[in-house]
Amino acid sequence: MAASDRQRTCDDYHVAWICAVADLELLPARLMLDEEHPVPPYDTHYDENTYICGSISGHAVVVATCPPGETGNVNAGRLTGSMFKTFRNIRMAVLVGIGGGIPGPVVSEDSLDNIHLGDVVVGWPGDGKPACVYHDRGRSKVDGHFEMVGTMQNADWRLTNALGVLASDHELGRTTFDDQLARLQRHKKKRKFAHPGVEHDKLFKPAYRHNGDYTLKCTACDPSELVERPQRTEEDQQTLVFHRGRIATGNAVIQDGELRDEIGARCDRALCVEMEAAGVDANRRCLVVRGISNYADSHNSDMWRSHAAGNAAAFTRELLCRVQPDTVKKMEGMSEAPWLVPLPRPRSFVGREAQLARLNAHISSQDCRRLAVYGLGGCGKTALALETAYRTREQHPMRAVFWVPVVSQASFEQAYREIGELLRIPGIADAEADVKQLVKARLSDEGFGQWLMVVDNADDVGVLFDAFEKEGGADRLVDYLPRSRKGSFVFTSRTRKAAVKLAESDIMALSELEQQEAEDMLRQRLPGKELLESNEVVHEFLTLLTYLPLAIVQAVAFVVGNNARLSDYIAIYKSSETEATDLLSKDFEDQGRYRQIKNPVAVTWYISFSQIRERNRLAAAYLSLMACTTGEDVPASLLWPGSTMLATTEALGTLSAYAFVTERQQQQSATGAQHREWAFNVHRLVRLATHNWLKEHGWWPIWPRKALARLVEVVPFGEHDTREAWTAYLPHAVHVAGLPEVYDAEERVSLLERVGRCEQTLGRYRAAERAHRQVLDRRERALGKKHLDTLTSMNEVGVALSDQGKYADAEQMHRETLALKEEVLGKKHPETLTSMNNLAGALNCQGKYADAKQMHRETLALKEEVLGKKHPETLTSMNNLAGALNCQGKYADATQMHREELVLRNEVSGKRHPHTLISMNNLALALSRQGNYADAEQMHREALALKEEVLGKKHPSTLTSMNNLAGSLSRQGKYADAEQMHREALALKEEVLGKKHPKTLTSMSNLAGALSNQGKYAEAVQMHQEELVLREEVSGKRHPHTLTSMNNLALVLNRQGKYADAEQMHREVLGKKYPETLTSVRNLALLAYQ
């Protein structure tokens, strides 16, 4: 059944006609409709707009306008935010009305090419740049250039195609503008749309100010100050003239000719300036159509407003008539903005209207402003932030909203990882991705659109502001907060000091509820009025709880759960107050408040917890276990399962009913699939109360050990395939392992070993070393240095050192481990052979190639004897030996061994196994060194493609292949391609591994070489010098890689004609052991010849 045969719904409308000035622009819009429809029903609770619905040439059109007198971008934003939520299938939006003309800097001889009053400007410059730009929010560059910032997405290409055809038809005289303009004459006040006359179209020089009263219509202004330009004819009065160009928008009416021209120049020859387009959602495609009613100077009058508005409406109808309705339906629709708020909307939120209004104004503003809300624990800061987030979603449906708790560094990082996954940021799932930097970069890009980030529980400023260790250096979490003019921050904190540090003067104190607000909350929470009893009882009840929201919620939960009356609870409260306060208030001081006033949260917690222990022991056990964790995002799978699924559900339900825990909502991936399990947050005060109760009753030493044992059960040894599951446990594992009560527990060693392996899998090598060293220290003291478990930990530390590029330390650790393993296990034991292999690798990385080759040969022979020739460990030794041969310049032998190993790898592990891909890469290197560049490039490309698919683009092994492919390109003379790939590899290595990692330095050297090959010697020298300084710092002056860097720098100096400097550097490269040294000898001989 067609829409015309039934009651239309909001989903039937696909075109939005927005006219912000109701008393001027709405009438011509309605006159353009073929017919008007009854407005479909919609939820006026969330959308207070009034709409006109109708059709134009088969298009179902909804017309929206601001209330009379409410114009500007803020009101336009409020109007469109709700409209796009109500009319979900809008595919085309047009913003139609009046604006100020910006005359061009050069007057055209053709009067129709110049901007005149009554003309129409349509926002489409056709140069690929934004059609509508902020004139007051761009970026001024150092060179004086002004970088424009677009306010919204450009119109759909199908609409701009129709615009192009319309322009062509206009030149051929094939438009029906006369028919559209005739529609304006159907109104009884048709004269208001008539042309005022060319004699009233006056453009004065920019610096000349209006003289006299505005009602005199510039009759007192000096005519000699008029701009000389061709006048329009009487015939032109009957012609609709339109121009395609850029439109500038801002926060204020422009009535200054000089400022107008400055805006036009700054915004790349904008033709029109107005105020409303800045308010239309940046994520929407919208075409702006403006009738020119003034010249944005001091000579402004109202004479041309209706005529200009009518012409804009007529032009818009003409354009719509040239687009098929089915074409509009195929245009790209807009999905809901990204939403990542893991907590439900507060069920009984009341009041706080003044605070909500301030928060809404803050969020609606621009320039990445910060606002911090601070107040007592339990006063409702998080509830206020949640209500703000949900209202933002309703009132600004295209603004993304993200929730980031900063209870700890781990909670911050987990939230950022979830944001990255939701936004499908490329590389976010890579094992060694810098998640925080990726998310910061994405949200700092203004092309992303508008967003709100709530940073909750920012109580400890150290979490955000203290430097933390990362691979390659130290950083602060606060440095990863994005910056975008389209973003806003709301922080919550218990302390004013933290609030000031986060938001400076833009802070808001939140106190207890007002009496009426508290009573409203109480009535919402209580199911029956009979429980309220008298007003006196209600007053006493709330007074006891000091009007603190968390205390009210917990107390009402007890009343409802026990079908008690408020007077009953008051009696229980008074009898429990002394004991509860003595037990629990020690750590509850909050800005001095709880030192003088008894803490109601402590008492309400005590009453509820006492009953929970009596009625549901499993719920009490769950809360006790959660008190040992970080309290943030505790996975349900971390809790012991109850005797039945029902028992588990009832226990968790009890904690939730008593407001002790808050269930985190399951988040959806970009594909719509739920990817996170059931998890819970425990309020800080509840967690602290539980903690103290356990201490006072002698249970605290027991519960951390129970939490430790449970974590050992669920945390694996860092298997990559199950990473999504165990990353949620990791913050709690680190926290529990750091509790003093478990320092001497044997299970702590097991947990730390697992943590170390997990950190290794995530590429956090420094954290891995830290965990493994704690295990090693404990095992050496408890088991002795020769115990097999101790030797395993020594090996783990050695591997972590190597991964950080600390090769000398790694060699020392591996030598000691190997000697002990040979003594304890014997030379042929597989564990001993593993240490031999690791030691040989550390030697090779330091340039001790002969020693490394000898050890690799010995290891290979023993592995073939003990494990067999096809065992994966044996193949690893084959690969490593071939690598050592390569480093010594024995390329033919290396190539032959790599080929043999690759064949066996394919057979044993398969082509896509990471070890097989490493073998492919190494064979390609050997081929390249033999001069077989084409085959090497082909193999590098195949290995790189497979690694990106299997390991991810940012995996260190993938970056190695990227670097090697670039080298292969360079050797074939494809220098530009090589440079581009080296730059990408270097940037990713700096991000993933850190600037001083040896592999990063290798990429720096290779990029410098690519620059040198293209004759970019100055840039190459600068990069070689920087890389050499870092090489000497990291590896030492005599390391072969350092010598190679010196040689490469000397070569570029030679190419610059700096022969003396080049000769001196070549002579510094001493010794004849390595191919690099021989290269320097040849280069030095070449200099002598020159």
Compact summary:
The chain is 51% helix and 10% strand. With 1090 residues, the protein is an alpha/beta fold. This is Kinesin light chain.
Describe this structure as you would to a colleague.
With 1090 residues, the protein is of the alpha/beta class. The termini are far apart.
Class per helix and strand makeup = alpha/beta
Span of the ends, CA to CA: 90 Å
Shape: flat
What fraction of residues sit in β-strands? Answer: 5-15%
**Range of helix content:** 40-55%
What is the alpha-carbon Rg in Å?
36 Å
Number of strands: 23
Question: Could you list the spans in which at least 5 consecutive residues all have pLDDT below 50?
Answer: 1-5, 138-144, 583-598, 666-675, 1070-1090
| Mean pLDDT across residues | 82
How many helix segments? 42
Protein name: Kinesin light chain
Organism: Macroventuria anomochaeta
List the helices and strands and how they pair.
Layout: E1 15-18, H1 22-31, E2 35-37, E3 51-56, E4 59-64, H2 73-86, E5 92-101, E6 120-123, E7 132-140, E8 146-150, H3 157-171, H4 177-182, E9 242-245, E10 247-249, H5 257-266, E11 272-274, E12 286-294, H6 305-320, H7 325-329, E13 339-340, H8 353-364, E14 370-375, H9 381-395, E15 400-405, H10 409-423, H11 435-444, E16 451-456, H12 461-465, E17 468-470, E18 473-475, E19 487-493, H13 496-503, E20 507-510, H14 515-525, H15 535-544, H16 549-561, H17 566-584, H18 593-596, H19 600-615, H20 617-626, E21 634-635, H21 645-657, E22 661-664, E23 679-682, H22 684-696, H23 702-714, H24 723-726, H25 730-737, H26 746-761, H27 765-783, H28 788-803, H29 807-824, H30 830-845, H31 849-866, H32 872-887, H33 891-909, H34 914-929, H35 933-950, H36 956-971, H37 975-992, H38 998-1013, H39 1017-1035, H40 1040-1055, H41 1059-1068, H42 1075-1089
